[in-house]
Amino acid sequence: MTRPFVLIAAIAAMVPADGLLARETVDASTPQELAVTVYRDPQRGQDQRMDRRWPRGFAMISEIRTVTLPPGESSIRFTGVAEGMVAVSAIVTGLPGGTIEKNRNADLLSPAALVDRTLGNRVTITRTDPATGVARSESAIVRTRADGGLVLETQQGFEAVRCSGLPEKLTFDEVPSGLSSQPVFSIDTRSDAGGTYTVTLSYLAWGFDWEANYVARLHEARADGSLRMELLSWLTILNDNGQSFPDADLMAVAGKLNVESDFEELADEPEARPLRLTCYPFGSTSAGSPPGYLIPPPPPPPPPPAAVMSMDSEAIVVTGSRMQKVMAEAAAPLAVIAAEEALGDLKLYRIPEPVTVAAQGQKQVAFLDKDEVEARFIYVVGCDYGEVDDADEVEYFDPARLILATKNDKAKGLGQSLPMGGIAIYEPTSFGDLLVAETRLRDFALSEDIELELPQSTQVFAQCGGVDREDLEKERRWVRKRAQISNANDAPVTVRLDLGTAGYTKLRGLKGTRIKDGRLIYETEIAANSRRVLRFRQQND
Q1: What is the pTM of this model?
Q2: Long-range contacts of 465-472 (CB under 8 A, 24+ apart)
């Protein structure tokens, strides 16, 4: 009675269950649509420039591909993903059976990978006699991996490659299954009926960054001290990956993004391993190496990544002979300007037409072109500490701090969020446009006051402080203070007195004080080529 049962069990064992069948591997098509959204390095401050040699930002990449699935379970290969891909962040939508398992191929097509994947299989070895130039080929079997000396089995026996002294070349009949010259991401899925589907692969990738670059051109100041300037701004987007993204919808996100993951560590970039072979020195282990034999030096370090070389050659320089070119570009109409959109508390800049984000390269797109920006220079004098002589004539003055001030609204010719970046300021002269300052600005939202710190003034000087130590020693309630300001310019200037922290400073004798950024300030105009003395009292706490 048991034999039929044993026979049935044996037959069942010979026919695997549907769930145990080997999964068929299929390749997804190349991306039909691409979208690349680049985020800045979240740890980079406003005074730090983008590191073109080691970008620490990231991007969200979305690819639309088609795939034809057989009935049952199968593995889908997405070839050509970014080498900085964070595989744990990948999402695939559009599949009828969802995702069963995700895998990242970390071994790229390389000499070492070819040898390892051909272990136990045949290759062709070709040796050239340097005396006659005759090449001789024969079949061989790979018997060791590529992590030391490479041993082949030929008709003559076992031989170590590159140890005979003759030029040698290995030829492989085909690329082993699973190796690709581009990074590969694969998933396991199931489709009961099979068919062709359009799927979307979205993932985060390491090795991107971007920053803003501004060029300002000042015009002559008006009688009231205000001036007009032209402002041209560019988004400089960096891709340090070895993959290009052709005809992509490109976007850049500005603002402070809270990121807690280490994308560099999670990326686990694929490796293309070189083939480094070593041979034991000629001679014997008992007699040692032959006289005059020198141990070969270690292999040289790998060359710097192509990204470094291309970054340097693509560096953005707005000085010297290129200055006139920059000014010419600023005057010419721009064909493509990135449009600003709201993304929660962040700002998104969308390039209106598809562009190619080249591998290990930079892309520049204009996002701001304003011709009538109203601004003014303000000279800032600190007046919340120190002592001065009560005499009208003093020997020493401190240079005032110079700032270029405007407001980010349409009335001043702006009215668009400004992401942080560097700004070069030029002024027209009889010799052409000359660089007068270079500084950096933080992120500025709409309606914010914009004040750019410039070098100290060489034309406006001041001395400010208490004039009588007895006021302090006798603990008088009100302390006498004085500010003496000189203006050597041929035009009047606006001077701002920084009088101390608001809420802790009380004054008498200055009308029109106000609070700005937590400080009590007073602004006044100083006539051209003149000196002015301001006297006031401050409460002694």
Answers
A1: 0.71
A2: 465/383, 465/385, 465/386, 465/387, 465/388, 466/386, 466/387, 466/388, 466/538, 467/387, 467/388, 467/389, 467/390, 468/390, 469/387, 471/540, 472/540
